[in-house]
Amino acid sequence: MDAHKLYDEGHQWYVFGRDPEKPEKIIDTNQYLIVDGDRSILLDPGGIEVFSTMLASVLKYVDIDHITDLFASHQDPDIISSLGMWDQVLPKATLHASWLWEGFIRHFGMDNIAYNGIPDTGERLTIGNTDLEFIPAHYLHSSGNFHVYDPKSKILFSGDIGAALEPPGMPMFVEDFDSHVEKMRYFHERWMPSNDAKMHWLNRVRKLDIEIMAPQHGRLFKGEDVNKFLDWFEQLNVGVATMQG
Amino acid sequence: MFEDSSHIAAQTAAAATISGHLYRASMIAKRMALAAKNSRAMVLRAGSKAAGLKVISDYFDELADKTINLSHIINHSAISISQNSVKQWRTQGFLHNLSKCKARVGNQKSTQLDPAMSIGEDSLHELANKLQSELSSLNDQLLDIRQYMQSSNVVAVTFRLEATQTGEFQPLLESMANSIDGLSNEIKNHITFSQNQLAQFKVS
Ligand SMILES: [Fe+2]
Ligand SMILES: [Fe+2]
């Protein structure tokens, strides 16, 4: 599994992905790790199939006792079906996810880890000296859905928004936005259910100062490409499955 | 120890199967209880001619109730065994993943995973011990039900014999004896099936 350091000024952001060992039919995912001193949080730790690779990759950068928190943007299997494993390896950790999904996510197995249900309006979390904001992104695509914004590094973890489906081995960052669009179009048209929810999210996110937008699948957006993405998403008509007759 | 997950899967399925069969056995036992109540009513109507049948039908009634209760208990223990199996299955998966991870990270990081490894192994042993005792009580319970059904077959034979003394009631009482016999055999079949399923469990 590839790992890249995204940020390293006082605290660190890592992205893990492009896993060559994952079974072929499984969608490739990006997992993120934020480290500040002896605390760290894993964002969308991934499916059960990538657990052992993921754990080994993360331990390259942190000690096991320093993984104190987990975050799940929503309930999907590619996000958090590994929970039953993390639960046994990190019994003292806390999982942060929408309050709405608690009863469902527990089906993945959660005997030890504590569940912090994030209220619909969002919440802040401090990891070491780093303040993180859980930004509401409801109905994009899940009914209880959050992103993570770090105002210091100016990184927005955007879950399934900004996702692209590409063959394995693609670079970490978008290089040519215009050609990247076609790799995102159907995913957003089909997975994102509501133009209202989309506009709501855009209004919220446009107020943030974002240097990197980091989705859970595909490439990350940097600098100007972040705004290009927001503009492109705004004009995109989503929720197309009900319009197909 | 880890490569055994297909065996645990078979074990989980076997426990769930036993639970299903015992549920069906308990449904049949309910029909038996009804048959017992009917036979008692019939015996009362036959009056003095069927005096000898009174004791037998009371005993039969009691047997049916005991069978219902025991099959409920067995149904529950089978579910608990099935849950235990799922937990073992999951823990084995965890240990398997963890050892894959340990092989990949350096010595120092691998040591950090030792506590989780030993907690996992301990709980696996604990689950295995619990499974052993649950299996042996399930085995005993299945033998008990089989015993009840054998008694019930005997009751049917005696019932049929006694029925010959009851004149016009004989055909009715005889058909009742046949139904008791038939239902007992149906339950016995479920028990035999469940006992065969128990053989799926590796007793270590
Ligand atoms: Fe999703
Ligand atoms: Fe996803």
N-to-C SSE string of chain A, H for helix and E for strand: EEEEHEHHEHEEEEEHHEEH
Number of helices of chain B: 5
| Gyration radius of chain B, in Å | 25 Å
The tally of structural domains of chain A comes to: 1
Unreliably modeled segments of chain B: none
CATH architecture designation of chain A: 4-Layer Sandwich
Distance between the termini of chain A: 42 Å
Largest interface: A-B, 16 and 16 residues
Low-confidence segments of chain A, ≥5 residues, pLDDT <50? none
Largest sheet of chain A: 7 strands, mixed
Detailed description of the structure:
The complex is a heterodimer of chains A (245) and B (204). Helix content of chain A is 25%, strand content 27%. By secondary structure, chain A is an alpha/beta fold. Chain A has one domain (2-235): Ribonuclease Z/Hydroxyacylglutathione hydrolase-like (Metallo-beta-lactamase, Chain A, 4-Layer Sandwich), CATH 3.60.15.10. In chain A, helix 1 (51-58) links the parallel strand 4 and strand 5. In chain B, helix 2 (51-104) runs antiparallel to helix 4 (114-163). In chain B, 89% of the residues lie in helices and 0% in strands. Chain B has one domain. Chain B is mostly helical and 204 residues long. Chain B is built from five helices and no strands. Classes of the chains: A alpha/beta (245), B mainly alpha (204). Chains A and B meet through helix 1 and helix 3 of A and helix 2 and helix 4 of B. One fe (ii) ion is lined by residues 76, 78, 160, 216-217 of chain A.
